Amino acid sequence: MKSFTYERPSSPAEAAAAVAATPDAKFIAGGTNLLDLMKLQIETPRHLVDVNGLGLDTVEPTEEGGLRVGALVRNTDLAAHPRVRKDYGVLARALLAGASGQLRNKATTAGNLLQRTRCPYFYDTAQACNKRRPGSGCAALDGVNRSLAVIGGSEACIATHPGDMAVAMRVLDATVETIDASGTARRIPIAAFHRLPGDAPERDTNLEPGELITAVTLPKPVAGTHIYRKVRDRASYAYALVSVAAILARDGTGHVAFGGVAHKPWRVETAEADLPKGAKAVTDQVFADAKPTPENAFKLKLAERTLSAALNQARA
Amino acid sequence: MVGAAAAPRDPGARTARTDAPVLVPVTFTVNGERRTLELDTRTSLLDAAREHLHLTGSKKGCDHGQCGACTMIVDGRRINACLTLAIMHQGAEITTIEGLGQPDNLHPMQAAFIRHDGYQCGYCTPGQICSGVAVLEEIKAGIPSHVTADLGAAPQVTEAEIRERMSGNICRCGAYSNIVEAMTEVAGARA
Fold this sequence. Notes:
Chain A is of the alpha+beta class. Helices cover 27% and strands 17% of the residues of chain A. In chain A, strand 2 (25-28), helix 2 and strand 3 (47-50) form a beta-alpha-beta unit.
């Protein structure tokens, strides 16, 4: 690991200013992803700004009937929160499907949104990876890409966003709140938060340098059965091959987002009107522009079947 | 104390320009004893315990949060000590396997692991036991898991709950079924 200096700022604006003003600085919260990457020298910050002491760790009701989740609320606490369990079951289920108990005790709401891809070529510093080293190429395109994106990728990158929580937040239409170095606040709809790789896969999100997430806001609850189905290579502590976050009524109407298939949580709202017709009617539209590889084409059928299982669960 | 900047406030001097170690003081309580160390910022909590405090019960397996051998209980919660910086734990209460029990004064979970053969080589065992103790507390506190059928109900100590919640602790010898038995016994004895 490269040497770095370290500070604990006293306010979110001070934290944002410190990262914006310092070359190669990063925020650290739970650290479960960043320190892993620093040990491998995939991330090499020279200065860490520890945001853990800034508060930002409460869940509070909003005037609109929703919830405002502080950036530093731990995954365990968010999943166990009574309002989340009662009104945002898809979010609780997504959180509990992710990582291990030890990691959920550390991992934060904001950090989970910012976790980096688990593409094996991103993790292997001997391989070409445009996300890790822009311009070096993408070894995944012709490599072992069974776990990687089937839609929204580019010639530069077919990495996936690895998270579960963000997929639930996408179906819930959450909003990410930030503050920048000047103290200016900004609200970013979750749909516009993560990016597609395009020709700049090194940028996972639309955050500006030094911009700090302060909270995630959930709109008022949506009625229906809240479902998060995650399909993975083992029963626990593994990334999704495909996941489905859905809020469904008994007649099949509702909303759905997919994880494990793209560089961001994947949702096509216009397809949701066809949910009562069954899974295939929806996934045919959601994945109409899919460009799978021979190794990961199975994800398209898997997405249809996982959605079908979710629809059956909602009808039961 | 918490909030003290460990680096100069002058932005020009703030960033580490070389690979020279940056040393920062940190004070925390380990197994009931207050300890102050001057640590390289890069030092994980695991390395602080093993290399600086010579508490070698916590083990380094993968050093990437995948195996759970390093599990400690920090401020009442189990975490992977390999994936956190020691200097981020100013003022924390840290419990390692040495703090749970000693050979002549075993923690009930340690005694149950012995009774049920909850290990073979023993390398993962300190992490398994720290995790096991914390898992029973998590169930008692009503924290749900992936296999909890009803998010509105209090989770129960079942084999499925234990197996799911222990998935962050790998045992290469495959002592899992005996670990489940040991944890079930401790949960029952306490109920």
